[in-house]
Amino acid sequence: MLVINTIKNSARITLRNNWLRNSLANFNAAPTNFTRTFSLGLALRQQQPDLVSVIFVRANGERIKASGKVGDSLLDVVVNNNVDLDGFGACEGTLTCSTCHLIFKTADYERLPDKPGDEELDMLDLAYDLTDTSRLGCQITLSKDLDGLEVHVPASINDARAA
Ligand code: FES
């Protein structure tokens, strides 16, 4: 009887050792899988060289990172990244609301490719917290030169259609 119990215990220990060995093998394989996933993500980013990063800074200082493609407007960036800016872009870029009002740093404002047209200036006049470097986000088109752009979101918005 003692011999039979010894053989049973030995078999259990062997099974446990095999389970432990397999578990360790799986554990050791995990970082390899992670590295592959990370590399794939990096490769996808490298295949999208036209992505332009934009940072939206709320009035309370919160920074929201987003990105868009060359040719997108800043309104597109907000919509496509689900940036939570209450009421932003209410007229969907038809230049009738001024809710997409954004404030640029002076250097960024001066390097924007286009100056505001009369329609945009008229709509900006209705925006709250207007500054010398204010623009309407729906009128700003992303170019690669604007990568890393930082724009400030005013504390309050005015939907000119409600007036
Ligand atoms: S989205 Fe309405 S003016 Fe820009």
TrEMBL record:
GO BP of this protein: P450-containing electron transport chain; positive regulation of ecdysteroid biosynthetic process; steroid biosynthetic process
InterPro entries on file: 2Fe-2S_ferredoxin-like_sf, 2Fe-2S_ferredoxin-type, Adrenodoxin-like, Adrenodoxin_Fe-S_BS, Beta-grasp_dom_sf
A GO MF label: 2 iron, 2 sulfur cluster binding
The keyword Lipid metabolism belongs to this UniProt entry's keyword annotation: yes
Keywords: 2Fe-2S, Electron transport, Iron, Iron-sulfur, Lipid metabolism, Metal-binding, Mitochondrion, Steroid metabolism, Steroidogenesis, Transport
Sequence ranges assigned to domain 2Fe-2S ferredoxin-type in this UniProt record: 53-157
Cofactor(s) this protein cannot do without: [2Fe-2S] cluster
Pfam families recorded: Fer2
Entry similarity comment: Belongs to the adrenodoxin/putidaredoxin family.
Entry function: Required for ecdysteroidogenesis in the prothoracic gland which is necessary for larval to pupal transition.
Name under which the protein is recorded: GH16023
Gene label: Dgri\GH16023
